[in-house]
Amino acid sequence: MTTGQRTRSATDTAVGHCEPTAIGAETGAGAVDVLVMRQTIARVLPPAEELPPGLDIDSVIGAIRGHMELIVPEIESKALALDKNDIPRFCALACVGEAHGKLRARAGHGAHAALVFARKLARSLAALCDHYETLTGIPICTACDTAIHPRSEQVTYERVSNSGGAVVSHIHATCANRPRRI
């Protein structure tokens, strides 16, 4: 294997790690695993101010960087295929530009600086995941904000928007039956 391409073992997938392999290699179908990316994001974006106990922040930063390196070219190619005046194209490409800047940056010294940096990367990756899901047409549950896989488990949710029009979105069948906290 050469440096740059990303692969995952079963263990790496479970914890969200990506190992480097060859730059410019074709990413196969399913190479972008948004669910694993979001699981990695969740490791550093809890509400606590301190580093979560037992978290190896350097490995999480490496995993997030690897995820970003996988998803950025996918988003770029999908966005560039859109019409030049398309708003989702502009938004996705702006997010890609931000991601490139974050990938060039490095964490400061110390555990707190590393955690702050990891959280910046994680927020950028979360935005990239959102754009990827939008550009690929993956339905997102409006109740739990996660992708709906497979489509057979979704329920259409219709409501009236504040602007007066009808809004049609999708929701997991399990989320539709879950009691809401007030």
Head-to-tail CA distance between termini: 52 Å
Order of helices and strands: EHEHHHHEEH
Number of helices: 6
What is the overall pLDDT average? 74
- The SS-based structural class is mainly alpha
Could you estimate the helical fraction of the residues in percent? 40-55%
How does the overall form come out from the CA principal axes?
flat
Strand order of the largest sheet: 1-2
Largest sheet: 2 strands, antiparallel
Radius of gyration: 18 Å
Uncertain residue ranges = 1-29
Structural notes for this entry:
The chain is mostly helical. It is built from six helices and four strands. The chain has helices at 10-15, 34-44, 57-80, 87-104, 111-136, 173-176; strands spanning 6-7, 19-20, 154-160, 166-172. The strands form two sheets. Strands 1-2 form a two-stranded antiparallel ribbon. Strands 3-4 form a two-stranded antiparallel ribbon. Helix 2 (34-44) packs across helix 3. The longest helix is centred in the last third of the chain and has 26 residues, at 111-136. It is flat. Residues 1-29 have low confidence and may be disordered.
